[in-house]
Amino acid sequence: MRKTLRDLAESLSETDRSEDLELNSGHLEQLEEVSKAARFARNQLAENLQLETAKQHDLQHTSKFSAWTRGILPVTTKKSWSTTIIYCGVIIQLLLVLAMWRYAHVEARHLFYTTYYDPLYPEFTPLQENSCFSGTISTSRSWTMVDSYETVRREGWRRDKVTIHSKAVVCQDVDLKGDITIGPGSVIHPKATIFAFGGPIVIGSGCIIEEAAVIVNRRKEVMRIGDNNLFEIGCRVESPSIGNNNAISTRARVHHTVRISNYCVIGVGCLVVPTEDETLDEYTSVYGPAAEKRIWSGRGKVQEADLRTKHGEYLREMLPKFNRLRRGDGA
User: Fold this and answer.
1) What's the predicted TM-score (pTM) here?
2) CA distance 2 to 171
3) Is residue 184 a contact partner of residue 207, using CB atoms and an 8 Å limit?
4) Which residues of 202-234 are buried (b: 16+ CB within 10 A; e: fewer)?
5) 159-322: which CATH topology?
6) Which terminus, N or C, of the chain has the lesser number of Cβ atoms within 10 Å?
7) What percent of the chain has pLDDT over 70?
């Protein structure tokens, strides 16, 4: 009995194991099919991803190239036209402001230099009225477009044009304004002033301009100063034409209506202010508080010229040792 039961149990366990094996093999086949489907889907997704990535890369490259091409090629749109018009308007306004500033600067200089008032010598340039302000305003010129164009054309965009010869000695502390040409061997001391407002000033060779001397050109014509002229301390000269070998003494004043020839001497503190144009003959000597004139014989002019030459040589040697020199726009 026991043996029979044992055999029956063994047979039943073998039957169960065979059924489990059959079930496990079927389940494995299903899993294999699902795995194949998953692998196929994964491969499909990978291929699609690669295709999409390639398309996106091509699209980005195409967009960059088109943007670069658009940046190179001119774009004719209303927005670009409006931007161009705005830029042109701003540039034109800046040019107009610059031109008006230049014209106002020139007019202010003209207003000051043509109405210069010296309290020590009020009769040299008398004011039209008691008030300095009203006298200054009364001498101003009327403004027109033609005048502004001529002023800017004559003055140019540059402020000053100073040409100093390489052998001339011009100290740094010298006030030079306008178109000025200084010849060889000329010496200009510190604190001297040369204003070429109306027209250019051309200074010859061997001239000596001492401290606090003032030379002004009011007229539009060229103010020509000859050779070997001496301008002493504190003198003021506005003569449009000066010859050779003349001497303007200390604190003398020469009006722009006077033309000086050769070998003339203006005495100390003399005021030469004629109301009409006048030309001083050669060897004219002006002296005294009444600015009387006489003609000298010219005796001793050679000795005086030699002395002035020695004076110039001494100044050209000594001034650079104690003063900084100024260089112009050209030699």
Assistant:
1) 0.56
2) 145
3) no
4) bbbbbbbbbebbbbbbbeeebbbbbbbbbbbeb
5) UDP N-Acetylglucosamine Acyltransferase; domain 1 (2.160.10)
6) N
7) 73
